[in-house]
Amino acid sequence: MKIIKEFKEFAIKGNMFDMAIGIVIGTAFSKIVTSLVNDLFMPLLGSILGNVNFKALKIVLKNEVEQEGVIIQPAIELTYGNFIQTGIDFLIIAVCIFLVIKGLNRLRTKSEDEKNPKVATPKDIELLAEIRDLLKEQKRT
């Protein structure tokens, strides 16, 4: 659930550096992801759903007008199958970008921690330091 929360924050807020990296990586991966969705994922999903061809899913609003074998007006169609494929492309790319940026942020945080090591003082040493400070104050008065 934490990853989903972080993904929502990334998708909604995101800073400019993260978005620039996202655009570059998204562009680089878009052809691979599109091929993955179109050539592997959608045919498998279509097969599971009963041999559905998502590319063929459409609603015809107006049929084409043809006279003497020449198309005068092309058909007007809502190709929602292509929209579903594009939506799945987007989700896969967004999750990949999110995971890459999450990894980069983790590396950035780790390198900052190494530059600024915080040495934890044990409780007994802190207590001894407080006693020392109190004794110094008593000697002054």
From TrEMBL:
Q: Where are the transmembrane segments?
A: 20-37, 83-101
For this UniProt entry, the molecular function terms from Gene Ontology, in alphabetical order, are:
mechanosensitive monoatomic ion channel activity
InterPro entries (alphabetical): MS_channel (IPR001185), MSC/AndL (IPR037673), MscL_channel (IPR036019)
Coarsely, its chief localization is: membrane
Gene3D superfamilies per the UniProt record, alphabetical: Large-conductance mechanosensitive channel, MscL, domain 1 (1.10.1200.120)
Its domain of life?
Answer: Bacteria
> What topology does the record note for this protein and the membrane?
Multi-pass membrane protein
Localization (cell): Cell membrane; Membrane
A Gene Ontology cellular component where this protein is annotated is: plasma membrane
Q: Which UniProt keywords apply?
A: Cell membrane, Ion channel, Ion transport, Membrane, Transmembrane, Transmembrane helix, Transport
Coiled-coil residues are none
Q: Which SUPFAM superfamilies match?
A: Gated mechanosensitive channel
Quaternary structure, from the entry: Homopentamer.
Family statement: Belongs to the MscL family.
The task this protein performs is described as: Channel that opens in response to stretch forces in the membrane lipid bilayer. May participate in the regulation of osmotic pressure changes within the cell.
Descriptive protein name: Large-conductance mechanosensitive channel
